[in-house]
């Protein structure tokens, strides 16, 4: 997603800070710019400040410092009902005393839209989420998934350009969640709306978003498209938080031509790509994805550094094999291999040698 | 909601088909059977019976307590509102005679009725329950109480006229033993003598061993029927009330009067044929009786109190002679059961309609005041952070924990003309010292004090309902473009209506029956129907009318409850959770 931040940012946070008690900052110096039509996910553990950011954007919380811009205009002093932002809540927040159609009619009525127009829009919105036959029902008569579809339709029915979603699928079971993930992304792209989506589920973030902002400790740790986030984490928090990850600790020996040699605490030397390290002698955490570890020596380059490993556990998971190894004193080193016909099945106690391509092994901050 | 019911109805409508389908599948046409061959329903009932019995045993103590101390007294009280046996029990003969008499005939009842009245009242005055009857009838017709009290004093002397003339013929007519010898069975006299002897020797306690039951002498009932009846009544009275035997005292003058009537009716041959005790005295008396000085009972009654010549009094006795009456209820709605049917009370005596209307109106005003004052407080309670909410909750509950009397008295101190509020207003110069506001002993005082007292009953249900309304509803409404007011009015308020309903029912029903506060701060214009009920229970002792007023009040509450259920739906009332 290459774009020029200064000209076509649709939503922008500029040096935004937020404190509830005047002592600690929940959001620290947030800078973020989104182009129109982007699906951006705020991902992070609870308490990382992602929901607070969303609430500031919606207008339910005010920023202690900094500026929030919508379509180039500051919105800090605009009350929520004048911002024209659609919002979907985790608990759906469908009005229980109104039918589904009345719920959808509500945003249109407060906008003084005529009856026939309203009915057409409601019908279109309900059809959009495949709930056309449920207009007369009450929310309590719908299942969780159906309720969330209605909530989605309600947030879209008045055709906002920006829609905020606060963990909308958090209360649903896994299968339903996956179906709805797909539908939400489909709708977002079809309608060309800009979406800010908050979740703590990294799979959701990776599968749905154009870009993901990983939050921790009130800051954006990394803002990148999903593949970049997974394959090139910028720091050890992101590496740990996104996907499964093996960590080895050590000290940088030397850095030459984009290749670093790291001496692990066990004494072994490995090849890595320097990301957050710049000079020899720095402590570092080295991150390798489990599926990038290789124990078939034929597939490694001849001059690659290898490590001795002992197989502790072999788990058959159907499509993949998950092998737990002891590597350089680390008992939780995991290797995932595809279940292919020629794949070796390791046995506990077996001694093997493992290695990897240097670019898959990233030397991050300690 | 309606859809849900339809869906359910649809589902249950299908269920029987499904069940029969299953039965056909399994090849059986009868009811579904359990594993041991008994019908499944019976088997299920048996399994649940122990459970049900245990549940019943758990609530039994409370159930019995409530039945005995609450339901039974209420039913008894309600029953009093129609019960009217006192007239027919006290004046049975008069009531029977009056059945042929019409007040519209404009003539006094015939002599037979007065004779019956004499007999009834004589007995009533001996048993001393004529005054109770007088008080009862006085509710319907003023002056009847004194009429009965006065005649009760005199009725015992009516018979002296005949007794004196019998006595002039023979001294024995004024003595106990000759009378007993004439009237009583010899066997009774023996038993009586024996019983007296035991009593006088303190061998028995007359309260534990009453005197022997009286038996009439053989044949005397045919000879002197009325005398025998009167003497039997006398003997029964002696036995139960005086704890003596009949031959210990000379009989009532009623007996002498009856003897005169019997002698006038008896044939000389029958009297001559009698050869028992006192045969000679009887014959003498029979011969002399036609020459006796006599007087009609009507004349005697009119001489005692000329009110007995008032047709209205007689009409009242007749109208209230049945065992059950609608009279109390009619009085409670400012009507009256007159000789010509149901009529309105005179304008100046219509007080209950006004009181009922006032009670309903003021309860409504109090309920509305409670909603207006309680809603914002409940909203604040539900939306403040926990700590501040708890503090506020204590402030709300504080009046709850203070005695009702103390709170009401405090309002008295606040509101009276020399009270705190007036003093402050005068000090501020808002009102002049000589025109201090009258805020107590009127409707205003009652409304202020009761609103304050009943406010927690509005706030608590409101609060518990509001707590369940998630703040995200308001946020959602605002994010959808509603102004804060629209969001409140269209999203928050409708969801809090069940709380308003619950609070209103609670406050209104409590208010409609309130007694202490209106009594203390209500003066004359601010009292409720309950104050009138209390007056009839404790001061005027007209329990029947109190019961009728209470029944109407209960009925009004039930009707309102029913109407509320129809309009709002009682399922929508939430007292918590």
TrEMBL record, chain A:
Per the entry, what this protein does is: Part of the ABC transporter complex PotABCD involved in spermidine/putrescine import. Responsible for energy coupling to the transport system.
Keywords per UniProt: ATP-binding, Cell membrane, Membrane, Nucleotide-binding, Translocase, Transport
Mention one GO molecular function.
Answer: ATP binding
Domain ABC transporter span(s) in chain numbering: 11-242
Gene encoding this polypeptide? potA
Q: Which reaction does it catalyse?
A: ATP + H2O + polyamine-[polyamine-binding protein]Side 1 = ADP + phosphate + polyamineSide 2 + [polyamine-binding protein]Side 1
The annotated subunit structure for this chain is: The complex is composed of two ATP-binding proteins (PotA), two transmembrane proteins (PotB and PotC) and a solute-binding protein (PotD).
Q: Which organism is it from?
A: Meridianimarinicoccus roseus
Q: Which NCBIfam families match?
A: potA
PROSITE patterns recorded for this chain?
ABC_TRANSPORTER_1, ABC_TRANSPORTER_2
One Gene Ontology term, aspect cellular component: ATP-binding cassette (ABC) transporter complex
> What name does the UniProt record give this protein?
Spermidine/putrescine import ATP-binding protein PotA
Pfam families referenced in this protein's UniProt entry, alphabetically: ABC_tran (PF00005), TOBE_2 (PF08402)
Automatic annotation (TrEMBL), chain B:
Give the family this protein belongs to, as stated in its UniProt record.
Belongs to the binding-protein-dependent transport system permease family. CysTW subfamily.
Organism of origin is Meridianimarinicoccus roseus
Stretches that traverse the bilayer: 55-75, 360-382, 389-406, 444-465, 497-516, 543-564
Recorded hits in InterPro entries, A to Z, give:
MetI-like, MetI-like_sf
Q: Does the keyword ATP-binding apply?
A: no
* UniProt GO cellular component terms: plasma membrane
Where does the record place it? Answer: Cell membrane
Keywords tagged on the record: Cell membrane, Membrane, Transmembrane, Transmembrane helix, Transport
Membrane topology per the entry is: Multi-pass membrane protein
Which residue stretches does the UniProt record annotate as biased composition, category Polar residues?
Answer: 1-10
Q: What's the protein called, per UniProt?
A: ABC transporter permease
Gene Ontology biological process terms, A to Z: transmembrane transport
Top-rank lineage group of the source organism: Bacteria
Leader sequence residues: none
Query: What PANTHER family does UniProt report for this protein, alphabetically?
Result: ABC TRANSPORTER PERMEASE PROTEIN, INNER MEMBRANE ABC TRANSPORTER PERMEASE PROTEIN YDCU-RELATED-RELATED
Q: Which residues form the ABC transmembrane type-1 domain?
A: 356-564
* Region of interest (Disordered), residue spans: 1-32
| First-listed, main subcellular location of the protein, grouped into a coarse class | membrane
């Amino acid at each position: 997603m290459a774009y020029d931040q200064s000209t076509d940012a649709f939503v922008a946070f500029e040096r935004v800070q937020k404190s509830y008690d005047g002592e600690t900052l929940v959001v620290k110096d947030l800078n973020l710019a989104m182009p129109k039509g982007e699906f951006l996910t705020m991902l992070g553990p609870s308490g990382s400040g992602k929901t607070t950011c969303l609430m500031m954007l919606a207008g339910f919380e005010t920023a202690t410092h900094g500026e929030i811009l919508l379509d180039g205009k500051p919105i800090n002093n605009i009350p929520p009902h004048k911002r024209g932002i659609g919002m979907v809540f985790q608990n759906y927040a469908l009005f229980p005393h109104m039918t589904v159609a009345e719920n959808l009619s509500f945003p249109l009525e407060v906008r003084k839209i005529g009856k026939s127009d309203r009915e057409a829009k409601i019908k279109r919105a309900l059809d959009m989420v495949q709930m056309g036959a449920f207009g007369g029902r009450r929310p309590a008569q719908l299942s969780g998934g159906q309720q969330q579809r209605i909530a989605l339709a309600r947030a879209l029915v008045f055709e906002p350009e920006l829609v905020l979603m606060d963990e909308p699928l958090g209360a649903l079971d896994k299968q339903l969640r996956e179906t709805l993930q797909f539908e939400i992304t489909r709708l977002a792209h079809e309608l060309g709306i800009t979406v800010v989506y908050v979740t703590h589920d990294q799979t959701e973030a990776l599968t749905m978003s154009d870009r993901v902002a990983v939050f921790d400790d009130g800051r954006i740790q990394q803002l990148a498209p999903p593949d970049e986030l997974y394959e090139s984490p910028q720091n050890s928090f992101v590496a740990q938080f996104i996907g499964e990850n093996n960590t080895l600790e050590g000290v940088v020996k030397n850095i030459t031509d984009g290749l670093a040699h790291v001496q692990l605490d066990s004494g072994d030397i490995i090849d890595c790509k320097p990301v957050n390290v710049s000079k020899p002698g720095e402590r570092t955490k080295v991150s390798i994805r489990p599926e990038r570890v290789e124990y078939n020596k034929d597939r490694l380059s001849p001059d690659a550094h290898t490590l001795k490993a002992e197989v502790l556990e072999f788990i058959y998971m159907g499509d993949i094999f998950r092998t737990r190894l002891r590597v350089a004193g680390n008992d939780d080193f995991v290797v995932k291999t595809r279940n292919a016909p020629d794949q070796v099945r390791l046995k506990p106690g077996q001694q093997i040698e493992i290695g990897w391509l240097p670019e898959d092994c990233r030397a991050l901050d300690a | 909601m309606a859809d849900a019911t339809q869906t359910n109805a649809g589902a249950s409508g299908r269920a029987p088909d499904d069940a029969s389908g299953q039965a056909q599948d399994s090849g059986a046409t009868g009811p579904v059977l359990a594993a041991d061959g008994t019908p499944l329903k019976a088997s299920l009932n048996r399994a649940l019976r122990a459970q049900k019995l245990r549940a019943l045993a758990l609530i039994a103590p409370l159930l019995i307590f409530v039945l005995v101390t609450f339901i039974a007294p209420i039913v008894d009280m309600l029953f009093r509102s129609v019960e009217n046996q006192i007239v027919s029990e006290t004046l049975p003969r008069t009531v029977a005679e009056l059945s042929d008499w019409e007040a519209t005939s404009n003539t006094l009842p015939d002599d037979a009725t007065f004779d019956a009245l004499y007999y009834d009242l004589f007995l009533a005055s001996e048993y001393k329950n004529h005054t109770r009857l007088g008080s009862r009838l006085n509710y319907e017709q003023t002056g009847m109480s004194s009429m009965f009290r006065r005649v009760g004093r005199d009725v015992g002397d009516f018979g002296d006229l005949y007794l004196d003339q019998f006595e002039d013929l023979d001294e024995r007519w004024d003595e106990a033993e000759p009378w007993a010898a004439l009237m009583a069975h010899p066997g009774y006299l023996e038993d009586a003598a024996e019983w007296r002897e035991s009593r006088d020797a303190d061998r028995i306690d007359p309260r534990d061993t009453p005197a022997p039951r009286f038996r009439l002498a053989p044949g005397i009932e045919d000879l002197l029927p009325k005398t025998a009846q009167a003497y039997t009544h006398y003997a029964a009275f002696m036995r139960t009330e005086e704890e003596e035997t009949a031959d210990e005292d000379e009989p009532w003058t009623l007996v002498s009067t009856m003897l005169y009537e019997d002698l006038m009716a008896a044939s000389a041959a029958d009297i001559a044929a009698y050869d028992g005790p006192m045969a000679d005295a009887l014959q003498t008396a029979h011969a002399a009786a036609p020459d006796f000085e006599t007087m009609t009972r009507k004349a005697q009654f009119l001489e005692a109190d000329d009110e007995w010549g008032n047709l209205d009094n007689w009409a009242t006795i007749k109208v209230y002679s049945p065992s059950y009456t609608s009279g109390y209820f009619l009085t409670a709605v400012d009507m009256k059961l007159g000789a010509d049917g149901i009529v309105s009370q005179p304008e100046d005596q219509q007080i209950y309609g006004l009181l009922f209307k006032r009670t309903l109106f003021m309860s409504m005003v109090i309920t509305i005041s409670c909603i207006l004052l309680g809603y914002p407080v409940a909203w604040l309670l539900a939306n403040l952070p926990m700590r501040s909410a708890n503090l506020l909750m204590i402030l709300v509950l504080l009046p709850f924990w203070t005695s009702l009397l103390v709170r009401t008295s405090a309002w008295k101190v606040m509101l009276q003309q020399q009270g705190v509020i007036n003093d402050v207003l005068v000090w501020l110069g808002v009102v002049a010292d000589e025109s201090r506001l009258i805020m107590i002993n009127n409707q205003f005082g009652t409304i202020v004090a009761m609103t304050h007292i009943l406010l927690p009953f509005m706030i608590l249900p409101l609060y518990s309902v509001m707590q369940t309304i998630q703040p995200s509803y308001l946020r959602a409404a605002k994010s959808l473009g509603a102004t804060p007011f629209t969001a409140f009015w269209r999203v928050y308020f409708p969801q809090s209506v069940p709380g308003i309903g619950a609070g209103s029912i609670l406050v209104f029903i409590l208010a409609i029956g309130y007694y202490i506060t209106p009594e203390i701060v209500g003066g004359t214009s601010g009292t409720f129907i309950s104050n009138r009920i209390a007056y009839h229970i404790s001061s005027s002792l007209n329990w029947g009318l109190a019961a009728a007023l209470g029944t109407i009040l209960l009925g009004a509450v039930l009707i309102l409850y029913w109407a509320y259920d129809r309009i709002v739906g009682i399922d929508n009332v939430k007292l918590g959770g």
